[in-house]
Design a protein that fits this description.
Layout (H helix, E strand, L loop, with lengths): L2 E7 L3 E2 L3 E5 L2 E4 L7 E4 L10 E2 L4 E10 L10 E4 L2 E2 L2 H4 L2
Parallel strand pairs: 1-4
Antiparallel strand pairs: 1-7, 2-6, 3-4, 3-5, 5-7, 7-8, 8-9
Amino acid sequence: MRETIEATAGEQIAFGSFVIVDDGTARHDPEGEGEGGLALRPANAGTITVYEPSETMTILRTGGALGLFGKNTRWAEVRNGRLLPPDVGAG
């Protein structure tokens, strides 16, 4: 199962960053401690690597992702808006 939501970027956010979402606005959550998800790379991003402030972004809340971040691609998995440890998500 894969669940995504949309939110407004509250700051510049790189694709693949873990974010926390509060009242429809996404902000960085580098420790992955809050409830949010992973900032997904839009299919039409081209060479762009970040969401700009006020831009609508897509956030992966549940599911796994590989190759959706652009540079430095890695496997990541989120469950109910929480980042899973690497050993749990490695599939």
